[in-house]
Amino acid sequence: MEKLFNLSITVNGKLYEREVEPRLLLSDFLRHDLGLTGTHVGCEQGVCGACTVLFDKQPARSCLMFAVMAHGREVTTVEGLGTIENLHPIQEAFQEAHGLQCGFCTPGFLTTLVPFLEEHPDPSEDEIREAISGNLCRCTGYQHIMDSVKLASEKMRNSREKKPQSG
Ligand code: FES
Ligand code: FES
After folding, report:
1. Using a 6 Å cutoff on CB, does residue 136 contact ligand 2?
2. What pLDDT, in 10s, does the model give residues 130-147?
């Protein structure tokens, strides 16, 4: 048996310490060791984007990373974006504009789009298309997803405007 690695990782704001095999994929660690099955695994070769998580706040393919690469780092999965009672605006938008069908690809879209919409508060259609070009949806078309992203950008802009200014 391979020597185990003492992994210390923050996931969705909570610190976890686990002994893991060095070859364990981050996607498998999240799903099997932590039970965070919202991160989906499709192609396992970096193509479909279903396994996307936020790694130090930037989207990353968890199927292409070993869990040990996240030692001392911060990961956010779809479970960390919002709660059932308090959805993230992007989750509300996907629900309202029918951006999810079977939902398999959805966690990857959401984690890809959160930092994108934070950096691009009012994105053009082309910018949205480019942002989601690495996420594949095998259900049907992308029109509802495009509509959801536009609605999400509106919601995120509105919630920013409502926030009291500090200082
Ligand atoms: S499962 Fe990771 S990109 Fe497809
Ligand atoms: S909603 Fe089914 S794969 Fe995208």
Report:
1. no
2. 999 999 999 978 999 999
